[in-house]
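Subgroup meeting minutes
Present: P.N., E.W., G.H.
Scribe: E.W.

1. P.N. recapped why we're keeping a running log of single-chain structure predictions: easier to compare across weeks, and new members can see raw inputs and outputs side by side.
2. G.H. added today's entry (229 aa).
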Amino acid sequence: MNKKLILAIETAIGGGSISLLENETEIDFWIGKREVSKAEDVLEQIASLLGKHKPEKTRIDLIVFSSGPGSMTGARIGFATVLGLQKSWNCQWIGVNVLETLFLLSDKPKRTLTATPFGRKQIACQIFDANNSDCIVKISPEIKTFKEFIEFINQGEVEELIVHDKLFSFINEQKQRNLTKEISLINAGENLAKFIGIKGLRMTNTSASDNHRQYHNYTTKIKDQKIEK
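Output recorded in log:
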């Protein structure tokens, strides 16, 4: 396989994260500490990562960004950043669903629920069903309250749960108190950009126009969702 240098940007969840990869091997990363990603932080940290490892900017082969679900403001920051960098570097780019990227961590074959924070009081989640090497999406991404999320798990459909680090402690606590079903729990951490980069590399046959349409469809579908503060 030819070596590809990948810049992955996740700005839709919390303070976001950035990852620099060579193919599927991470070279370095950054995790934001703010509640919501800021454009100036993202640009500053991209410059810092590239300056630290000194790759020629023209060597960036692929830029991958998160198209959500998550903060609309954050997702737009990532999208605008990618468009600016792509124009400057003339490289390939792609947007990916962050819930789908978490499925990369699945211990197949299992019925898996991936989940990330959505605002302060809600959770974005999606079910996947693994059949050998095939991934079948069972439901579209859904937004649930914390209570609805636990009730959904207790219905018994889910065998494995892969979550962002900010949800991991909450789920562990619920396993002791309110979860009535045994479930495998995997902490994806805060550096989701790494998995976004890997997923994007595996999807590079998708055209840029398809990516733009995918992002537009996501924003159209989610923008009317009420985010509880």
